[in-house]
TrEMBL record, chain A:
InterPro entries: TFIIH_Tfb4/GTF2H3 (IPR004600), vWFA_dom_sf (IPR036465). This is Putative general transcription factor IIH subunit. GO terms for biological process: nucleotide-excision repair; regulation of DNA-templated transcription. One of its GO terms (molecular function) is zinc ion binding. It comes from Tribonema minus.
Automatic annotation (TrEMBL), chain B:
Its main location: nucleus. This is General transcription factor IIH subunit 4. Component of the general transcription and DNA repair factor IIH (TFIIH) core complex which is involved in general and transcription-coupled nucleotide excision repair (NER) of damaged DNA. Signal peptide: none annotated. It comes from the Eukaryota. GO terms for molecular function: ATPase activator activity; double-stranded DNA binding.
Length: 285, 491
């Protein structure tokens, strides 16, 4: 048992809209990834992760329409200076913290959507939660440089192209910090998360069958060191499409500013990001 | 790596079995998950798991008909009790040990001690034990008989001469310089060894230790207020925009309370209760008063089985502690700065630490929060004479390094480290061998050379002076060499 302890940070997408859509499907007989099923699988997954090594630690960041927040460890637990690793926190308390946190977040976003914008889009601020998770990870690494960290993103809704820049920045900082990002997409395929897993060396996993737990345990639970033994199904194709800076559309062929590398779906003579002038002559000849 | 693989195999197996229900899985399927290059690792993991009786052949399990037996050839499964308990651990978090039996249910404690108090008490008792080890003549009653017995049994202390007083031994020094987790673990090991003849008692003790590691230090949330089951959350996203009642803020407050979990003493078997009592004497467990029927755990006890793995570098903990505003008021750590001029500055208030330092330091000054001492040849030699090693001294200094010097490489100035090692080598410069001096009355060197050669062949020649015809021979071979020399003498 000479391995270093590891820290798993889970980013849980708790946006009402996405889950509501899923649950509506479930009512029609589809059994793929309902909220309850996913949450229960998540709990068992976390529990087995904690069983893997005594010193393993977890953190959960949830994000919804109302914003993102640290669900575990809560500020109270941080203040007490106790952790799972030292036996200061019981796993029951972890679960109740997660459940309480999700509940508060969801009721907050339910209030928000009801009063302000009834038909608000179901796009969770994954980017916000990702950066919060990365900040937390960074703090833990500075406290104890030997700790191994990894990220798991559970996404339910579709990608939000307007947060393309923010998400990509998060992905590249994770890559730089050598933190693998695993992704579990319960909803539609996610372009951003495919790229995240590809760039950071994580696992991308799109749930298409009802047994979420099986996928979590077989694909995501093994540590980086352990994964090299496994014959996993890699990503055959990675969707590398970028979102354009002007309309936030996912595009395959684009105009790229030669100075700042901004991507545009339509030609414009002056780059909207850096103000560089494109020379029309060169284009026409 | 193997451990990793093993742990992974456990979980994968269980996941397969959650699904299959029946519990058996074909070996080939299991092998199929592993890359071809690593089948060796996989085979080793499976072999190890089988040796531990975690994995068993499916044929052994089913008492079914021969046809079913045939079908289950080549299948393996988790040992049923292991599987049952693993599933239980995964699905129902916090089955606290000794809690499910209503016979031993405890009423809520009126005066629940705070975590800070328990940990403080633990440090105090443990330091008393260590203090007894360093300077048993010190004031105070000293530890209980069981602790004394342990000290003697483990060879940490011995009676010197005819006096009743116990004196620290070489092993005792080693013990004292170790981390507290390791110390506790050594104590437990010696206890288990002393019980090794009685298989029943040993099993009892082991199961007690494992159950301890499932205890928690601070209490879980009270189920009455803060608890919501998953079901209630799942109602949230059902498109109803009705605001849900916000979770009561009381639950958040409750989280921050430093209440500790208590466990019933009566639920233990006699052997376990005896061990628990020993632990209470040492401070690993806490009991409010001797007649109390409940005990509380400490961090050390909970992490006992995982001992050293859980130990962080204390200085790092100090840095963290300085950051955290609400830090528990535990016994202060000692931090040491070693200067290049052999002066040592130790920030500590504890008598124990001072006693530990005086083992190899010459004290110069003692201030309220610090001690200044000098490493001298005499002080180090004194430590070396009692059996302590140079590497132990250096490790001790490194282990307690002050945060300001912890990132310096080397942590201890090179000249100091080298000098301490040189002082240790000084003591091993002279080698003693029992031997006999033979003054051979030969006329010429020819015969003497023959004898010397013969002794050399036997590996017994310690020293030879050809001009004087004098030879020193190891005691073991002296008779042979004398007989040989006699043979060469002119009659």
């Amino acid at each position: 048992m000479d391995e270093d302890p590891s820290l798993l940070v889970v980013v849980f997408d708790a946006s009402q809209g996405a889950w509501a859509a899923k649950d509506a499907l479930a009512a029609q007989g589809s059994t793929v990834g309902t909220f309850q099923g996913t949450l229960e699988a998540m709990m068992v997954f976390l529990q087995s992760y904690l069983l893997m090594h005594r010193r393993n630690d977890i953190a959960v960041v949830a994000c919804g329409e109302a914003g993102s927040r640290m669900v575990f460890p809560t500020p109270a637990i941080e203040k007490d200076n106790v952790s799972l690793a030292t036996g200061g926190v019981s796993s029951k308390r972890v679960q109740s913290c997660i459940v309480d946190g999700l509940r508060e977040l969801m009721s907050a976003s339910a209030c928000g959507t009801a009063s302000v914008q009834p038909a608000v889009s179901s796009k969770a601020p994954i980017a916000k939660a990702l950066s919060q998770a990365l900040c937390f990870t960074h703090r833990k690494i500075t406290e104890n440089p030997s700790v191994q960290t990894r990220l798991l993103v559970v996404q339910a809704g579709p990608d939000a192209p307007e947060s393309y820049n923010a998400v990509m920045n998060c992905i590249f900082s994770a890559q730089k910090a050598q933190i693998p990002v695993d992704c579990l997409c319960v909803g539609p395929d996610s372009v951003f998360m495919q790229q995240a897993a590809d760039v950071t060396g994580g696992v991308y996993c799109h749930v298409q069958e009802p047994n979420v737990l099986q996928q979590l345990l077989t694909l995501i639970l093994p540590s980086q060191a352990c994964r090299k033994y496994l014959r996993t199904k890699g990503q055959e194709t990675v969707d590398f499409r970028a979102a354009c800076f002007c309309h936030r559309r996912l595009i395959e062929i684009a105009y790229v500013c030669s100075v700042c590398l901004s991507v545009f779906c339509e030609f414009s003579p002056i780059c909207a990001t850096c103000g560089t002038r494109a020379v029309p002559k060169l284009l026409t000849t | 790596m193997d451990n990793e693989m093993m742990a992974w195999s456990h979980v994968v197996l269980s996941s397969v079995q959650i699904r299959a229900g029946d519990g058996a899985i074909s070996k080939d399927l299991l092998k199929g998950w592993v890359r071809d290059a690593y089948t060796g690792v996989h085979r080793a993991a499976v072999r190890q798991l089988s040796a531990l009786r975690v994995l068993v052949r499916a044929q052994e399990l089913s008492g079914a008909a021969a046809a079913a037996q045939q079908q289950r050839r080549g299948m393996i499964a988790l040992n049923p009790p292991f599987r049952k308990n693993l599933l239980q651990a995964l699905l129902t978090p916090d089955v606290a040990p000794w809690k499910d039996d209503p016979r031993f249910a405890l009423r809520p404690d009126k005066l629940t001690p705070s975590r800070a108090k328990i940990e403080g008490e633990m440090r105090r008792k443990w330091e008393a034990v260590l203090h007894f080890l360093v300077a048993s003549d010190g004031a105070g009653a000293g530890p209980t008989p069981s602790v004394r017995a342990f000290m003697q049994q483990a060879g940490l202390m011995a009676r010197r001469g005819r006096s009743e007083q116990l004196v620290i031994t070489n092993r005792g020094y080693e013990f004292m310089l170790r981390d507290i987790h390791v110390q506790a673990w050594m104590f437990v090991l010696s206890l288990i060894r002393s019980k090794s003849s009685d298989a029943q008692a040993r099993d009892d003790l082991l199961s007690f230790l494992f159950m301890l590691s499932y205890c928690t230090v601070s209490a879980a949330l009270q189920p009455l207020e803060g608890h919501h089951n998953a079901q209630s959350v799942c109602a949230a996203p059902s498109l109803s925009c009705k605001p849900l009642p916000a979770a009561p803020s009381a639950s958040v407050n409750r989280c921050s309370e430093k209440v500790c979990e208590d466990y019933p003493l009566l639920a233990l078997t006699p052997a376990q209760a005896q061990l628990a009592r020993d632990f209470i004497d040492l401070g690993l467990l806490y009991q409010r008063k001797p007649s109390s029927q409940r005990f509380y755990t400490t961090e050390i006890a909970v992490n006992l089985v995982f001992g050293a793995a859980a130990a962080e570098h204390p200085s790092r903990a100090v840095i963290q502690a300085a950051d955290a505003s609400a830090q528990l008021d535990l016994a202060p750590r000692m931090t040491i700065i070693v200067e290049t001029n052999f002066q040592v500055v130790a920030y500590t208030t504890s008598d124990l630490h001072v006693a530990m330092l005086t083992l190899f330091l010459e004290l110069r000054a003692r201030l309220p929060n610090m001690v200044i001492g000098v490493i001298t040849r005499e002080s180090v030699r004194q430590a070396l004479v009692t059996g302590i090693k140079a590497s132990q001294i250096l490790n001790f200094l490194k282990w307690h390094a002050h945060p300001n010097v912890i990132n310096r490489r080397p942590m201890i100035p090179e000249n100091i480290a080298d000098q301490i090692i040189l002082w240790e080598r000084e003591r091993t410069r002279v080698k003693y061998d029992a031997g006999t001096l033979l003054d051979l009355p030969f006329e010429g060197v020819h015969d003497f050379d023959k004898v010397a050669e013969y002794a050399e062949e036997l590996g017994a020649c310690l020293w030879a002076a050809r001009e004087k015809r004098v030879l020193i021979v190891a005691a073991a071979a002296v008779n042979k060499v004398v007989a040989f020399a006699d043979g060469l003498m002119p009659s």
